[in-house]
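Q: What would this complex look like in 3D?
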Amino acid sequence: MSTTSKPKKSGGALAGTANYLDERVGLGIVLKGFGRKVFPDHWSFMLGEVALYSFVILILSGTFLAFFYQPSMAEVYYQGSYAPLKGAEMSIAYASSLDISFDIRGGLLMRQVHHWAALLFIAAIGLHMLRVFFTGAFRKPRELNWVVGFLLFLMAMGAGFTGYSLPDDLLSGNGLRIIDGMLKGIPVIGTSVSSGFFGGEFPGTEVVARLYSLHIMIIPALIIVFIALHLMMVIIHKHSHYSGPGRTDENVVGYPLMPVYVAKAGGFFFLVFGVIMAISATFTINPIWNYGPYDPSPVSAGTQPDWYIGWLDGALRLAHSN
Amino acid sequence: MSDIEKVYPAGLAGEIERPIPNPGIEPHRLRMTDKSEKHARTAEKQISAMFLVSVIGAFIAIWGFVAFPINDGDLSATRNNTLWMGVGMALSLFGIGFGAVHWAKTLMPDAEVSEPRHQARSPDESRAAAVEIIKMADGESGFSRRKLIRRSLYGALAVFPVPAIVIFGDLGPVVGDSLKNTMWREGVRLTKDPTGIPIKASEVTIGSVFHVIPEGLSDLDHKLEEKAKAAVLLVRVNPSDLNEDPAKAGWSYDGIVAYSKICTHVGCPVSLYEQHTHHLLCPCHQSTFDLANHCEVIFGPASRALPQLPIAVDAEGYLIAQRDFDQPVGPSFWDMRK
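A: Here is my prediction, written as structure tokens for the whole assembly.
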């Protein structure tokens, strides 16, 4: 336990590694600066953590899915394990989503982890924003971080929407049909924007691959950059804390990063992942095999987007077409 | 002066200046694990037991992968490996998570510490130095002084992103009249969706609904694009229930009417028909159309009636189209009336 506090030359492998890193990247200064950084303790401060951890889980599960998913709208006849759809004509995107669900062990689990983590990501961001709003933690000097956080909220919804469309099942295709209608409704340039988005007439053969590029490249890259900005500003401002004895505007009261918060926050990542894993193992989400491949003609009653797009879908009910 | 004696302006909440002195951080209370080595030993055992549970969970997950290989057509394998790998991994994650948090809460120090918080604002001398650097850079480059350079730079910066927009010009073809036309032509038979079996007028009983596609749709290369425009809903009502425009009287056949199924709001299939009221409802955003009155909008965000397909019956008694729709189907767009 005490090896790190001994003079570096006399230590074992750990001290050797620490010495190696310090002489090359100045690890000592970093640890001296952040090793005992104070983290105030309150359950509501964990909401942002839940969002951050959900994003890490999204990247891990998404990478697994990307190994097997094929973003092509070329038509094939399904030959996989799911008997009710055998021989049905469908896009390769939908067929590969079915293969992930039924022909790859752990594939369905990872699909469900990815979807549940996406819902938790956005729910946690929403609750985190409510916490920040109602505690006034957006006020000077933290206004810019509120803006960065709000942009992250929009990007999370963009990531959610582009991902929702990838399986190319009946529901996600209906979602795209609605996007097509909205794009066409843009004054003057609407039809060109729609044609540019879909690569011609709806539904075309391009849109799934384009959404896939957005979903796995530019949107997550932007989210990572903005999370880095968000956390940098948290370090600059230090954490806000609730009022209480000994807590003032001039100090931060809580527990030090090492060892207490490494254990607490590190352990909490595993707890968040554990909750998502347990839900994904036992509760079905987005059973695309029940919906069938996309077809412009059928629709099921109560076609709704995921709940976090609900406010936009509701707004569309108020928006009259011309 | 006590707080009560202070006079506050009416209607404004007053700020109380330090009514009581800051008592400082609460005194630290020792936990049982701080006071007794026995309790600390118990906590230690609990923590390592949780880490052990994590190892067991990992093995359950591996077993779930090995024990339930994919069996073509047998969904129980999928159910079992999803369940057991998930439960195993969840257990494995919970073991580490609860173990680490329990460790922090029972054995790591729980005395709160305080560190100073500094203003983000730089000290005055740093601000002055920063302003000095900006002024020096401005002087050395001549940015303020040399107007010609500055303004031409602004011009170049404004124009250079334009190619980055133009380069996306080939994302999609220019849409000509294709949005205004569907594959319905004179004499094309109305067939059932998705089987493509032609429909005889005599099959269509009063009150029944048929989902219709044009004959030959399944043979096309771009059938989804065509279907997205040509899908039709066919309904037969009592002819006396139809309140038809005299100009369109010949568009129906003995109470059988055919309307585009694609909502004029944002394009969802309008597929819910209510027999008694002759209303068609779009399930996406609840636009409602009155079938008895040429599908005019009676509720919801759509603004345009569903286009009607003029139909007739051929010599063999099958329903056919008289011609294409007289206006574009689906979501309205800017230049649709040109």
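A: To summarize the key features: Chain B has a mean pLDDT of 92. Chain B touches chain A through 92 residues (CB under 8 Å).
Q: Very helpful, thank you.
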